[in-house]
Amino acid sequence: MEQPTVFVILGPSSSGKSTLAREIGLQWGVPWMQADDLRLALSVSQAQTSSQGSSFYFDRVVAEMWTSQEPGFLCARMVETAEAMRTGLQIIIENHLAVAESIIIEGDCIHPDLASVPSLVEAMSSHRLSFCCFKIPNIEFLRSEILNRGRGTNAQTDQWLDSLVGFQWLYAEWLETECHSRSIPLVDCLPRITLRQRVQSALDQ
Fold first, then answer.
1. b/e string for 48-66 if b means 16 or more Cβ within 10 A?
2. What domains can be seen in the chain, in order of their start residue?
3. Could you read off the pLDDT of 71-105 as tens digits, one per residue?
4. pTM
């Protein structure tokens, strides 16, 4: 895999982004950043989303929210979160490119439209910046992975879990469509054992 200055890994929850970013970071000897760090900072600072003028504490929403809102509503809020983070991530990427400091960035809420920003398109054409997006196979896999990770799911109801899985699946479909339209390489997250090699093949094309 040719080593770009900045490598951005998109993908839905449970697709293996963090694991691969950590592995590649160790291999390349470069740091990796979770875009969730920026999302948490925006949440704590009460940053507002654009469409409704109200903050959406995506990671702090109470259990009742999951059961009182449709998956489509929650997916739309996830997209808004990615939109709210887009400028901040663009600045981070451009700064690392300007000072030639390598970094790997991964996360759920990375908007594919970053691959359409003119300054970043130029960096992609010179192979200083690369994007890829992981695909999950189906909603049953997503449910299984969310349960296996057990992040706050153990004490929740089936209705809560259905809402969580439903919106995450809708977001995964949205992300895949948006990445495809911007020619961001799409890589199946399974089998895990060959994921790094398949990412390399996608980037080397």
1. ebeeeeeebebeeeeeebb
2. 6-200 (3.40.50.300)
3. 898 888 888 888 888 998 999 999 999 999 999 99
4. 0.89
